[in-house]
Specification:
5-stranded mixed sheet, alpha+beta, 235 residues
C-alpha cells in the first residue's frame, strides 16, 4: 500500500489549520488516515509547526512519500537532513558521532535563524506601532493648529485694532506738554513781579537811610549854635 504524508485541513474559513497525517494515497484529502504526526498553523509568523520527529523519520525511512508542502515542512524541521546523515552512516562515509555532531550544529544554526527572525519581526512590529503613534500625534497637532488658526482673527485686523487703541494714547501724550507750557507761561509773569518788587522798593530804602543822616546834619548846626551862644554871652 502506497502511503503519503499530507496535510488534512481543519479550522474555519479564512483561518485554516492543518494536521500532518500519514494516509493511504487513494484516500481523499480530508478522509481517513493511518496516523497523525503533528500540526501546522500558517496563521502565525513564523508558522507554528509541531511534529513528532522520531515517528515522522520512521515513516520517511519506511517509504512514505510527502507531498510538496509536507516535504518543505519536513526539510524545515530537519527530518530529511537527518535521513541524509543516516544514509551516510550506513554507507560508511560518516561515523555515528560525526552525524550527531553535524545534526546538532545544524539545529543550533536553524534555531538561531528562527530566533533572529522572531526578534526582527517583533522589532518591526514595534517600529510600525511607534510610527503609527507618531503619525497620529502629528495629525492631532495639525488638527489643533487648524482649529487655533480658525478661531484666531487675521493678523491685519489685529494690527489695525492695536493702532486704533494706541491713537488716543498718543494724542494724550501730545496734549500734556501743551498744558504744561500754558501753565508755565501763566505763572511766568507772577514770578517776574515778585522779583521786581524788591527792586522797586530799593530807592525807598535808600531814602529812609539818608533821612536820618540829614536830620543829624540838621541837628548838628543846631547844637553848634547852642554851644556858641554861651560864648557870646560870656563876652
Amino acid at each position: 500500500m502506497a502511503t503519503k504524508i499530507r496535510l488534512q485541513r481543519h479550522g474555519k474559513k479564512g483561518s485554516p489549520f492543518y494536521y500532518i497525517v500519514v494516509a493511504d494515497a487513494r484516500a481523499p484529502r480530508d478522509g481517513r488516515f493511518i496516523e497523525r504526526l503533528g500540526s501546522y498553523n500558517p496563521n502565525t509568523n513564523p508558522a507554528t509547526i509541531d511534529i513528532n520527529f522520531d515517528k515522522t523519520l520512521d515513516w520517511v525511512n519506511s517509504g512514505a512519500q510527502p507531498t510538496d508542502t509536507c516535504r518543505a515542512i519536513l526539510s524545515y524541521k530537519g527530518v530529511l537532513y537527518k535521513k541524509h546523515l543516516e544514509g551516510g552512516v550506513k554507507k560508511g562515509a560518516l561515523t555515528e558521532e560525526q552525524a550527531v555532531a553535524k545534526f546538532e550544529a545544524w539545529l543550533e544554526q536553524k534555531n538561531s535563524k528562527i530566533t533572529g527572525k522572531k526578534e526582527s519581526l517583533t522589532t518591526a512590529k514595534q517600529d510600525a506601532r511607534k510610527a503609527a503613534l507618531a503619525a497620529e500625534a502629528k495629525k492631532k497637532e495639525i488638527k489643533a493648529a487648524s482649529i487655533i488658526a480658525k478661531n484666531t482673527p487675521p493678523v491685519e485686523e489685529a494690527e489695525v485694532a492695536e493702532e486704533e487703541a494706541e491713537i488716543p494714547v498718543a494724542v494724550a501724550e501730545t496734549e500734556e506738554p501743551v498744558a504744561e507750557v500754558a501753565a508755565v507761561e501763566a505763572e511766568a509773569p507772577v514770578a517776574e513781579e515778585v522779583v521786581e518788587a524788591p527792586v522797586a522798593e530799593a530807592p525807598v530804602a535808600e531814602a529812609e537811610v539818608e533821612t536820618p543822616a540829614t536830620e543829624a546834619e540838621a541837628e548838628a548846626p543846631a547844637a553848634e549854635a547852642e554851644t556858641e551862644t554861651p560864648a557870646e554871652d560870656a563876652e
